[in-house]
Structures are given as C-alpha cells and as structure tokens.
Amino acid sequence: MSAVTVFGLCAAAAVGLGLYGLITHPQPLRKIVAFNVLGNGVFLLFGVVGRRGAAAGVGNDPVPQALVITGIVVAFSATALAIALLLRWFNIAATTADDRATEHLRSDPSGG
After folding, report:
1. In the chain, at which end, N or C, are there fewer CB atoms within 10 A of the end residue's CB?
2. What are the structural domain ranges in the chain?
3. Minimal CA–CA distance to 64: which of 44, 83, 82?
4. What burial class does residue 23 get, using C-beta atoms within 10 Å of its C-beta: 0-12 exposed, 13-18 middle, 19+ buried?
C-alpha cells in the first residue's frame, strides 16, 4: 500500500468522523471541534489530490497547496469567531439566568 493511499484513507476517516460528530453531538463546542476535524480531513484530501495529480518525479501541484494554506487560515479564523460567539452566548445566558433568580427573590421575599 502506497503512502498516498494511506493518506487518502486517513482523510476519508477524518471526514467521516467529523460528519459523525456534527450529526450526533448536540453540544455546540463539540460541533465546532467536529467541524474542524472534518475540515482537516478535507485539507488532507486536497493534499492527496495534489500529490496524485503531479507528474512522476515532480513535487506536488501548487494549486491544491495554495488552497489548503488559504483554507487553514480561514478555518482558524472561523473557529476563533465561533468560539468567541459561543462564549458570548454562554455569558449572556448565565447573566439572564442570574437576573431571573434575583428577580424571583425580590418578588417573593418570604422565600415561599
């Protein structure tokens, strides 16, 4: 089995695991991680395609390499944005829950 085949199988496995995680996990942070695993599988697949498309004895095709490098930068920034939005959402939800709890105590001071 050649190295290209092994990398192709690993790419397929990463894409499959990422899709499985996106479908089965309801937690938003796990969905973000699963989306990153899926993206890394796609990047690896582009690398395999670039290697297979190259002529014998020549290096990789530069177009898939450029796409992968650009994709990594975009994926990193999208992940940072998604995590920042998720943290903001959790902070707003916690603040809202705290406000509801203190409002309940103010409306009924006897505690019952």
Report:
1. C
2. 3-107
3. 44
4. exposed
Q: Which residues have C-beta within 8 Å of that of residue 8, sequence separation ≥ 6?
A: 45, 48
Considering the domain 3-107, what is its CATH architecture? Orthogonal Bundle (1.10)
Q: What does the pLDDT look like over 1-40, one tens digit per residue?
A: 888 889 889 999 999 999 999 999 999 999 999 999 999 9
Enumerate residues 6+ apart whose C-beta is below 8 A from 33.
Answer: 21
Q: In this model, does residue 69 exceed pLDDT 70? A: yes
Closest CA to 72 of 111, 98, 42: 42
Which residue has tokens 């290096």? 59
* Residue where the block lists tokens 């409306």: 107
Under DSSP, the state recorded for 45 is H
